[in-house]
Amino acid sequence: MSFWWRPLLFVLALGLLALILTTGGNAGNGWMLFAAGLLIYLIYQLRQLSRLSAWLASAERPPLSGDGLWGDAFYRLEKLLRARQGAQQKTAADLEQMLEATRSLPDGVVILDQDNRIVWLNAAAERLLGLSPKRDLGQFVLYLLRNSRFVEWLMSEDLARTLTLDSPSAREHTLSLQIVPLPRLQKMLVARDITELARVEAMRRDFVANVSHELRTPITVILGFLEAFEDMPDAEPGEFRKHIPLMREQSERIRRLIDDLLALAKLESEPDAKDETVDMPVLARRLADEAETLSQGRHRISLGLDCRARLIGNSQELYSALANLVTNAVRYTPAGGQIGIRWSMADNGSASFSVADTGEGIEALHLPRLTERFYRVDRGRSRASGGTGLGLAIVKHVLQRHQARLKIDSTVGKGSTFTAQFPPERVIPEPTMPAEEA
Ligand SMILES: Nc1ncnc2c1ncn2[C@@H]1O[C@H](COP(=O)(O)OP(=O)(O)OP(=O)(O)O)[C@@H](O)[C@H]1O
Ligand SMILES: [Mg+2]
After folding, report:
1. For residue 428, which phi and psi values (nearest 5 degrees)?
2. Which ligand approaches the C-alpha of residue 339 most closely?
3. What whole-number percentage of the chain has pLDDT above 90?
4. How many Å apart are CA 154 and CA 107, to the nearest integer?
5. Structure pTM?
6. How close is the Cα of 388 to the center of ligand 1, in Å?
7. Domain 203-268 belongs to what architecture?
8. Whose CA is nearest to atom 9 of ligand 1?
9. Which helix (H) or strand (E) holds 427?
10. CATH homologous superfamily for 273-428?
11. Which of 232, 245, 231, 276 is nearest to 402 (CA)?
12. Are 104-193 and 273-428 equal in CATH topology?
C-alpha cells in the first residue's frame, strides 16, 4: 500500500488555501501561510530523515515506527535489513561449522596462499607436520618443512602426484601428502597418516619374501637331484632310489607349507566358522594319543582331564590349532622330557586347554613375536624338525575366532606352557547325558 498521494494532497490543500486568501485581497497573508506550511512540512521531512539516519547508524536498531510514506519506507527497510542480517548470520554459522569440522579432521589441513605462506592450519596439521598456529601463520611453508623431497614436490606444482614422507614431528609415523587447488590461487595441503597402511604393506612384502624363501629351499634340493639324474643316463635304478626319501621329504615340506598357507587364507577370508559342540575330553585324548605316536616313546606324556566341559566352537579348527601346541611340545622337548596335556575349568566358568613341557624353553624377548607368520626362535632347528613357522599364527587366528586367548609361560632350560583360555560364553560346563548312558 503506497501513501504517495497524501503529501501531495497536503501541498495542494495548502496552495488552494493560499489562493483563496490571495483572491480575497489578502495576498501577503496567503503566501505567508503557504511558506509557513511548506516550512513545517520540510521540518517534518527532515526530522524523519534524521531519525532514519540515526537508526541506520545505531548498532541495535530498535523497532522504528512512523506514519504515511515514511512509516511504509521504515517498515520495508527494517524488514530488508533483518532478512539480510539473518542470511549473514546463517552464512557465518555455516562457515564456523565447516571450519570446526576441518579443525577436528583426522587429516592435517594447511591452507597456503599463492606464495606458499601459511594462512590457516588445523590441529592434525600441528601434530603431524609439527606446525604451530600461533608461531607459523604467515610464514613460508618451505622454510618450516625443509625436507628436500617436500620442497621439490611442492615446487613441481604437479597436483596429481602424492608424496610419501616420514612425519617431521613424529618420525615413526608415515604421511601421504596431497595438494588440492582452491580459488584465488590458494591451495590446501592435506597430510594423511598412513602408518598403519605402510606397516601392512611391509608385512605383505615380508610375507611374500618369506613364502618364496621357504619354497625355494626344498625345490632347489629336488631340482638338484633331477638335474643330476639327467646327467647320468646310464645309472642303475638303485642309484636313483636311494635319493627318493630325501626328495619325498622335501616334497612333503612343500605340501605342508601350502596346506598351512591355505589354512591361514581360509581363516582370514571366512569371517565366521560354523559352531558346533566340541567334546573337549575326547579331543584332548585324541591329541594325547597323537603325541604318543609322534614322540615314539621319547617323552613321558600325561593327560589330565579336570572337567568334562565341552566347547561351542569349530571342531576342525580347534583340532588343528591345539594339535600344533601338542606337536610343538613334542618337537621342541628333548628325549626324556615330560609333556602334560590338561583340560580344566576355572571358577568364573572359563576353561583352559594347556600343554606343558620340560623342553628347552623360550627367551622372553621372543614371546611377543611367536605368533607372527614364519617367526621361529631357531630357524635351522625348527626347519630341521619339519616346522614352517606358521603353526602359532594359525593358533592365534583360530583362538581369536573363538574369543579365546593364548597365554605363553616359558623359562629357558626349564620348559614352556602354552594355554588356550576360552571365555565362559563358549563353555558348556557338564554334558547332559541321556539317563540310560549316565
Ligand atoms: N613348546 C615349545 N618349546 C620351545 N619352543 C617352541 C615351543 N613351541 C613353539 N616354539 C618356538 O616357536 C616357533 C614357532 O612355532 P610355530 O608352531 O609357529 O612354528 P613351527 O613349529 O616352527 O612350524 P609349524 O608349526 O608351522 O610346523 C618354533 O619355531 C619354536 O622356535
Ligand atoms: Mg608348530
Report:
1. -105, 110
2. 1
3. 60
4. 18
5. 0.67
6. 9
7. Orthogonal Bundle (1.10)
8. 328
9. strand 427-428
10. Histidine kinase-like ATPase, C-terminal domain (3.30.565.10)
11. 276
12. no
Kindly state the cell numbers that stand for 409. Answer: 609361560
**φ, ψ of residue 163 in degrees (nearest 5):** -120, 130
Burial class (CB in 10 A: 0-12, 13-18, 19+), 339: buried
CB neighbour list of residue 104: distance below 8 Å, 6 or more residues apart: 122, 123
Mutational test site, ligand 1, from 214, 254, 354, 392, max ligand atoms within 8 Å of CB: 392
How many of the other CB atoms lie within 10 Å of CB of 283? 19
pLDDT of residue 437: 40
CB atoms within 10 A of CB 88: 10
* Residue type (1 letter), 330: V
Residue whose Cα lies nearest atom 31 of ligand 1: it is 377
Give me ligand 1 centre to Cα 89, in Å.
Answer: 68
**Which pLDDT belongs to residue 3?**
66
What are the residue ranges spanned by the domains of the chain?
5-99, 104-193, 203-268, 273-428
Residues with CB under 6 A from ligand 1: 260, 324, 328-329, 332, 357, 359-360, 362, 370, 376-378, 382, 387-392, 416
CA–CA separation, 209 vs 203, rounded Å? 10
Residue ranges for the chain with pLDDT beneath 70: 1-3, 431-438
- Grid coordinates belonging to 23: 483572491
* pLDDT at residue 423 in the model: 97
Per residue in 139-194, pLDDT tens? 999 989 888 999 999 998 787 889 999 998 888 899 999 999 999 889 999 999 99
Q: How far apart are CA 267 and CA 249, in angstroms?
A: 27
Nearest ligand to the CA of 253 is: 1
